[in-house]
Amino acid sequence: MPGPLVVLAAAGLLLFLLPLAGLIARAPWAEVGPALRAPETATALGLSLYCSLAATATALVLGIPLALVLARTRGTLRAVLRALTTLPMVLPPVVGGVALLLAFGRRGLVGAPLYAAFGLQVPFTTAAAVIAETFVAMPFLVIAVEGGLRSFDHRYEEAARALGARPWKVFLRVTLPLLRPAIVSGAVLCWARALGEFGATITFAGNLPGTTQTMPLAVYVALETQPDAAIVLSLVLLAVSLAILVGLRDRWLGAP
Amino acid sequence: MHSARAAALVAALVLTACGGSATAGQGAASAKEKLTVFAAASLQPPFDNIAKKLGQMTITFNYAGTQTLTSQLSQGAQADVFAAADTAHMKTVENAGLVDGSPSLFAHNRLEIAVEKGNPKDIRSLSDLARPGIVVVLADPSVPAGKYAQQALARAGVTVHARSLETEVTGVLSKVALGEADAGIVYISDVATSGGKVDGVSIPDAQNVIADYPIAKLKGTRDSSAADALIAYVLSPQGQQILVAAGFETA
Fold this sequence. Notes:
The complex is a heterodimer of chains A (256) and B (251). Chain A is an all-alpha fold.
């Protein structure tokens, strides 16, 4: 590899490494024990894991069919659908949160009739946190699965159909298993994005310990008054993220 | 050799960009006096007005919850003047050795219940906030307004289960203005300057809390005389009038 490219690559690596090194080096290791045992830490972590997993599950149920539709349309329709599904990725998360409020809030497009008919308010609930996380994270899954579909060998599906399998069976027994690497890598990205979501959550769902205060929100609030606790929470999040990413590795992300 | 030249060019551009921004700052200072002011979120309406009156200065405001500003200053953020919504956070900044001289009390504020326009849920007092079905939003206890709200509720003997704890008092106001919350506890000044988007329900003095707002010049100031001039204006009759018009009480 040419010398200058190596230098640039090293600079890029440093950009990732230095903040992590700073976090680990400046962590108040003496306080880690008590901070970890504090009930607030467990509450925030538990809520974060629950919401991010729920968001990923929702993304799988809604995103895989969406990716299938995307892969099978052409022309302008495809361009429009593509833009819609990738929009949450480029939209600033707080803007996403405002948009969710205007759609599902008590005066929102869908939220107003919901409130008038059932007295149901979406913001300030854990469901709202899940919706916010799904909104920002699902595009990752859709893009990954759509990518998998494009490098697909359709002859397997055709063979199954030719042998008399019904569409639903083709989907479950042929399409899905062949898509497994794309689905898994997309789901991991989706879950990681959902876990780290802040702007849309705090704007749409609010900030209440135990209900909507996920780890990123807990870190943000703690940073102002108890910086040491915030650093410990950050370490916990880092450790959990690393554990899952390392644990999955090529075993699940490799080719079928 | 293309890759080597391209890399050198990129490196040169990056370095000039970094160096250029430093020199640009020095060059522009000659025209107008420039100040950076960290001020509590509730101070935005009156301080924006004060900035307009002081046309000879270009003032950049950083409005946020007082606890956020305190944290930023402690982490080394550069500012000329700090205006806080409570004396406790100003004390923290003083203890960190960041204040030049001593702070001056420049205004007071009191709490008020913000409700949706027209008060559809008929909220008349703090105890009404505990009614089942009322959606209440408060500022987080780490925010001065949130701390004061807890004190007022304690004085009134009311337990409220807030649905969200906002990180700045203006967040509480906006949740009520957006129609997501039925009520929130904010400052009188927030309701006064909301442009009619929310209605206010007053809190009796016996339950209410008086917020003390201190202002101070910071040691990191780049224009000491301009900072002094701003603080003097805030404390002057004209400045106090602007604060009163925004719903504050004089020092």
